[in-house]
Specification:
The protein has 384 residues and is an alpha/beta fold. It is built from 17 helices and 10 strands. The strands form 2 sheets. Strands 1-2-4-3-5-6-9-10 form an 8-stranded mixed beta sheet, with helices on both faces. A two-stranded antiparallel sheet has the order 7-8. Helix 3 crosses helix 17. The longest helix is centred in the N-terminal third of the chain and has 19 residues. It is globular and about 60 Å long.
Amino acid sequence: MLHSYTVARLTVRRLALAGAAAGVGLAVLALALRFGPAMTLALSLALPATEPWLGPLLQDPARETVVFPAHDRQITADLYRPPRPRAALLLVHGLSRAGRRQAELARLARLLARHGEIVLVPEFEGLTAFRLSGTEVEEIRAALRYLTGLSRTVGIAGFSFGAGPALIAAADFPDLGLVGSFGGYAELGDVIAYITTGVHTFGGRRYVQRQEEYNRWKLLALLVGFVDSGEDRDVLTAIAERKLANPVAGIGDLEARLGREGRVALRLVLNRQEGAVRPLLADLSPGAVRALALLSPLAVVPRLRGRLLLAHGAADDSIPFTESLRLAAAAGGRARLAILSTFHHTGPQPLRPSLRERVEDGWNLLRLADDLLRTDERVASPRG
């Protein structure tokens, strides 16, 4: 996942070090005056050691565990409640075993709450199992309904594969003040093509990036939710778990137990040829094809009325940055877009970035932090 909170922490740290070396103290002071609370948030994210001396300036929020209904199940969530709330924000985690208790996500929630945001962080069981099934959208809708009962002004921010369902759910809530997608996707078919071949395109340009084999098995786990056959689902789950635990482990014994539907899904994951992606996608079951389309948020973006924030690492090896370019284009110029040149999906690139790249990324992240703290601004007028 692209964790924007991790991105903020590391990039602003780089910016601070670069700024000190270049003697730009007055520029930092100007940023502090312009961004105020956002600068405090950025400093807290960038330099954890600053929290002890920033803590007295901002009251710690209370965290409580809450439960709310969604269809036929109960959703457990962490609720961070500041002493004097001014707005509320729903955070949707990505594919993470830790779910709502992922360390950096919890830290981001706490820091936002210190600045007056009621923050709700639910546990989405499908996403903790590296799986999408479509139920996540209704669960997020239920979370938004719960949050609107606590605050008149509500926003939502989704991360990585959690951002797609978050955008789809947000389209049904026209009064949201803010909608954020951080390292998210526009169309799942394009993400599958990227993970399996490294190819991604936008605006007539074609890019190729070397892929991590680990991502193939995360993709397989994600696709299990779209397989109709219960037996094939069980076998594919076992294959994904075995490979995620040990990428060089053999799976021949499990492959032999797969039916046609399971074999098609596995061939799609193992494919490396750009030209084979679309035929393999079309060979999935009709239910799987429909599910992939329904979980692709590109079509709903024009319906989003709140301020739209998009951020993506240029070297992201799980979801290509071109997906955020697509989302921004679909928004018709209403989105705040930041493509971060110094980061991939989970943190900084191993290559040494230039001072210009550091400063540009730092500036973009300060503006994004500022936007996250302005959930309570008036909703944009509807288009058309």
